[in-house]
Amino acid sequence: MSEHSVVHGGPSLPQRRTLVTEIPGPKSRELLERRQRSVARGLSHVLPIFVSAAGGGVLVDVDGNSLIDFGSGIAVTSVGNSADLVVDRVTEQVAQFTHTCFMVAPYSGYVEVCEQLNRLTPGDHDKRSALFNSGAEAVENAVKIARHATGRDAVVVFDHAYHGRTNLTMAMTAKVMPYKEGFGPFAGEVYRVPMAYPFRWPGGPAACAAEALDVITGMIHAQVGEENVAAIVIEPIQGEGGFVVPPDGFLPGLAAFCRANGMVFVADEIQSGFCRTGDWFACDHEQVVPDLVTTAKGIAGGLPLAGVTGRAEMMDAVHPGGLGGTYGGNPVACAAALGAIDTMIKEDLPGKARTIEARMLPRLRKLAEQHPVIGDVRGRGAMIAVELVKPGTTEPDAAAATKVAKTCHGNGMIVLTCGTYGNVLRFLPPLVIGQGLLDEGLSILEDAFSAL
Ligand code: PLZ
């Protein structure tokens, strides 16, 4: 790539991995130095490269290296970066008007996104939606709505949960480092119960669903009181906490418990939603119908947008003016969402996610047979992970996860870690990634395990 060639992002970017410098190259290193002098230390980054363009399944850096993307900006660019329909809609909207504030003078894009959310989220009951800027803000608002609708205070969350970095959502997030350390005191009336985590359940995976439900409902009864619980909030597949997939039967059991006790069942589908797991929403897998659903990330192809969608009578329990925000449902972000959702429908992205799963899981299972450091292979659709442990035990091996990730980065592939113990490698390719790149990414990963 010549110094002067202009690289345009989007799906027309050459879909190949090319390393023309070491990682990071000289231009990235120069920017890293500037970053160190200008950006607060509290912001970290996974890769030491600076991006100049991205599209399909690759990300191009300022030195001209093209990397395979197995991260999608943490499950955001499911339709690919700068997807055609997103760019078209956003370009059109940005030239019409950029902001009026929906609470001042409304516009149709906001209404259309709400109509799509009401149609696409699980359940065919009457629904309403409200739009916000970030996942954390959506979770906060779901709690506000649940409290208003029930007249109760308590919120029940899970071990390994991640719900955001604002004060209430920090309280709801399980992991202290790096998310909560030194940032307290935290919001009250948040109660934590064990997660149905098959790989780590003491009684084993087969007993996990029933035993977890027993423990959880017992704890709520003894420590909180059913009549005090406004909402149970759960990620149907946990994200930051380690891609924990609860066993079949667990989510339906939890939803039934909520229904029987007048609690609002909130599914945080911020990471798992919008085709990521091979269904439109992870709850669809077992036909679980949440009362409220929070969405963000994949909804708008990379622009900041989030939503709360739920039963009309719960959503409408809040008085006029009780919900809002200056930028929530910004017209440009709404245009992006409409373009992204159109892409998901036209290109059958749930189907694409299932194809990715079918391609990845067998190779990862084979890899696990060769490398006993892989204790568990799990996930659905294009939300797949391997958990690394000291062979033959469940003792986490975070150092191995970090080492494999670093090797992949150096070889031109973006891969992220996660998990309470930092020992999970997670794979979140854009759903539009080509088969060649997907296979090449898996080969890079296999080589990284061989080099451990
Ligand atoms: N709920 C399930 O995954 C965001 C966090 C990255 P925001 N996950 C990525 C980081 O380290 O900050 C997330 C999520 C689930 C809520 C959120 C919060 O979404 O858009 O980051 O606020």
Description:
With 452 residues, the protein is an alpha/beta fold. It contains 13 helices and 15 strands. It has helices at 26-38, 72-75, 84-96, 108-120, 135-150, 167-172, 205-224, 250-261, 312-315, 331-346, 349-370, 398-410, 435-450, and strands spanning 51-55, 58-61, 66-69, 127-132, 154-158, 190-193, 229-234, 264-268, 292-295, 306-311, 374-380, 383-388, 413-414, 416-418, 424-427. Bound molecules: ligand PLZ. Residues 74, 134-136, 139, 162-165, 235, 239-240, 268, 270-271, 296 line the site of ligand PLZ.
What can be said about this structure in brief?
The chain is α/β, with parallel strands linked by helices and 452 residues long. It is 37% helix and 16% strand. Strand 7 (229-234), helix 8 and strand 8 form a beta-alpha-beta unit.
Bound ligands:
ligand PLZ
Q: Profile the largest sheet.
A: 7 strands, mixed
- Give me the number of helical elements: 13
Radius of gyration: 22 Å
Distance separating the two termini: 32 Å
What helical percentage do the residues reach? 25-40%
Low-confidence stretches: none
- What is the N-to-C succession of helices and strands? HEEEHHHEHEHEHEHEEEHHHEEHEEEH
Q: Care to count the β-strands?
A: 15
**Approximately how much beta-strand content do the residues carry?**
15-25%
Report the average pLDDT across residues.
Answer: 97
Main attributes of the structure:
15 strands, binds ligand PLZ, alpha/beta, 13 helices, seven-stranded mixed sheet, four-stranded mixed sheet, about 450 residues
